[in-house]
Specification:
Length: about 220
Amino acid sequence: MNKRFAIFDMDGTLIDSMGIWNNLGREYLESKGIYRDMEKDDAEKEIGIVMKEIAAMTMSESAEYFRTRFSLPGSAGSIAYEMNGMMDEHYKKDIPLKHGVKEYLQKLKESGVRMCVASATAEPLMVACLERLGVLSYFDFMLSCESMNTSKREPEIYLEAARRFQAAPEETAVYEDVLYAVRTAKHAGFYVVGVYDKESEGEWTQIWGTADETIKWS
């Protein structure tokens, strides 16, 4: 990668958290007793359907989906607050940095590359996790789909990061681990680095074929 600017996704790219994120909906529903009275196989099938539905949603969207689908009390905001609290514990305590990431970031910094993080995760959770893992100082700023009211199926978050850098998309590398985000950044004119993550292994061939380069941190 020889670009002057770099935009990093966080979950599944910098940190090994996608397994926990993918299980968050299940963790939340279990805490509310949803499907408790169903047969185990039927409950697993229903949870699988729900997990697919929320896979590309932000926290707020997932909370609203749970509120309406399961007639949960309270607002979508209160549900999102509870779910954020669950993830907050994971970010503060047990989510690890991917092996080789810190060394990679250090090399980019030494080469004069300016970096930021653009994630679907809320900014306070990003900061808490990256600070604990000792890599927060590598990044100029954080951007969240949550606060921008967008998703990575649209290019706004990448374009906003480039604007803050005062850079053009073609001067900027975007690091992503899921296919839809890789495609979004690529179509917006960014140089795209596909990052391998075991949770999106089924998309790896397509990511490899779409991105400008790919990386597998050990």
